Amino acid sequence: MTVTVRFAPSPTGHIHIGNLRPALFNWLFAKKQGGKFILRYDDTDVERSKEEYARSIAQDLAWIGIQPDLVEKQSDRFASYDAAAAKLKEAGLLYPCYETPEELERRRSRARALGRPPVYDRAGLKLTDEERSAFEAEGRQPHWRFMLPNHEGNPFETKRTEVTWNDLVRGEQSVDLASLSDPVLIRADGTYLYTLPSIVDDIDMGITHVIRGEDHVANTGVQIAIFEALGATPPVFGHHNLLTTHDGEGLSKRKGSLSIASLREDGLEAMSVACVAVLTGSSHAVEPYDNLDTLANVFDLGSVSRSSAKFDPSEIGGLNARIVHELSYDAVKDRLAGLGVSGGEEFWNVIRGNCAKVQDAVGYWQIINGEIEAQAEAEDLDFLKAARRLFPDGDVTAETWGAWTNAVKAETGRKGRGLFMPLRRALTGLDHGPDMKDFLPFIGRQNSLARLPE
Q1: Kind and range of the H or E element at 62?
Q2: How far apart are the C-alpha atoms of 273 and 318, rounded to whole Å?
Q3: Is there a contact between 40 and 61 (Cβ–Cβ < 8 Å)?
Q4: How many of the other CB atoms lie within 10 Å of CB of 302?
Q5: Residues 155, 211: one domain?
Q6: Contact of 236 with 197, CB cutoff 8 Å
Q7: Total domain count for the chain?
Q8: How is 232-248 classified by DSSP, letter by letter?
Q9: Is 249 contained in some domain?
Q10: What distance in Å separates the CA atoms of residue 70 and residue 205, rounded to the nearest whole number?
Q11: What is the pTM of this model?
Q12: CB of 251 closer than 8 Å to CB of 243
């Protein structure tokens, strides 16, 4: 059996790091098993689904390193859903109901007031042909419910019916179908809810494992029943914890919270985003990994915690800096060229330890190639004038900084921070940065002397 998984986003907005989490879980699981990954757009909501969002999702996944083996659109597959619905209707498992949303809410409220669970009473099954015709004469159109297998022939006498599965993340799970309402699969306007198209696609596409957020746990028992009603073996399920901010706030496409596009545009590395998305809320430390292959080798669904996966968005920045500090010149040379930085490998190796993002190289490139706003305290002016006079002759090399500061120390008596900081500020305009021994040759004699007071 070839492991086959899917990621099924709705192209109704830009995906965020919380959406990326299940995409990566599925991708890494399939990669480790030598399986297939299907990107399947849940675009049955034709009014809200936009092609621009589908393109954005594909771009975001590609940036992270996810290359689907197959791309599908549910909007191309309505005939398959119609056929499945017809099969369920013919079997008497999909039945029409005519209650309005307001009527259903009143029934639920009444049940709660009487201390009963607000489970649908299958009133639609009791309707005669005449009553259905009367409703339709009023202009009502039916919504269609799937009859759960929670009875022994009389649907109005339900019994406890346990559906169990061994969850890849949560272990043994069980749902009592008698505690649930028959789910609506088709709305009154004839459009499908998520459930039936998803199941039909999983069957037709040979999905072996469904890995998704824990907010779907309650749906799983119902979906297993529908798989079996359609004559299919259900896939293996895994439900992981959801990614939230430290205060417990969920992420939302509508708010644009931590969208992958914005993180990319902010100059973050794909692997810093991927590592936070995957390792947060697991038994693994949130550490940097070079690529998805190495991440797949260490990650497994059994390491995902049952507790919440809270993270501080600032963690991405810290992890990003650690990744950038280890990037080779070959990994960044094209990006540096695009940023107008042409210092070569030696320049990158000198500055990368001080870059939180690759684009930070621009600031250091400007220091050696343009004017800076030198920083000098009034009490340091005479010191800096002496330093200018003592600047060594000849080419500026890796030995120049040591020879120069030794000479300045001997004449002025300054040492430590009082010696080095005024020189750094005057030459770079910064309080911190690359090792001046290695950075000074890039600044050069002319710029150095021009930035020191005469």
Answers
A1: helix 51-64
A2: 11
A3: no
A4: 11
A5: no
A6: no
A7: 5
A8: ----EEEEEPPEEETT-
A9: no
A10: 10
A11: 0.90
A12: yes
How many angstroms separate the CA atoms of 150 and 185, rounded? 17
- Residue 313 has what DSSP assignment? T
Q: What is the mean pLDDT of the chain?
A: 94
pLDDT tens column, 362-411 = 999 999 988 787 778 889 999 999 999 999 999 999 999 999 999 999 99
Sole residue written with tokens 């921070």 = 417
Distance separating alpha carbons of residues 212 and 241, to the nearest angstrom: 9
> Residue 175 and residue 218: Cα distance in Å, rounded?
7
3-class secondary structure, 37: strand
Q: What is the pLDDT of residues 120-159, one digit of tens each?
A: 999 999 999 999 999 999 999 999 999 999 999 999 999 9
Contact 277, 289 (CB under 8 A): no
Q: Give residue 355's domain range.
A: 329-367
Q: Are residues 35 and 92 in the same domain?
A: no
What residue type is 403 in one-letter code?
A: A
Q: Is the torsion defined by CA of 310, 313, 318, 319 positive or negative?
A: positive
Tell me, rounded to whole angstroms, the distance of Cα 213 from its chain centroid. Answer: 12
Instruction: List, in order, residues 6 or more apart from 165 with CB less than 8 Å away.
Output: 172, 173, 220, 224, 234, 236, 237
Helix axes 270-279 and 51-64, enclosed angle (nearest 10): 90
R_g (Cα) of the chain, nearest Å: 32
Q: For residues 66 and 199, state if they share a domain.
A: yes
Backbone angle region of 443, left / alpha / beta, with phi > 0 → left and psi within -120 to 50 → alpha: alpha
Domain shared by 91 and 163, yes or no: yes
Place of tokens 């757009």: 41
pLDDT at 62: 98
What residue ranges in 264-405 does DSSP mark as E strands?
A: 309-311
Confidence of residue 114 (pLDDT cuts 50, 70, 90): confident
Residue 373 maps to a domain: no
Q: End-to-end distance of the chain based on CA atoms, in angstroms?
A: 78
67/106 same-domain check:
no
Question: What does the alpha-carbon distance between residue 193 and residue 204 come to, in Å, rounded to a whole number?
Answer: 18
Q: Is residue 396 part of a domain?
A: yes
* Residues 397 and 446 reside in one and the same domain: yes
Q: Which amino acid is at 416?
A: G
252 within domain boundaries: no
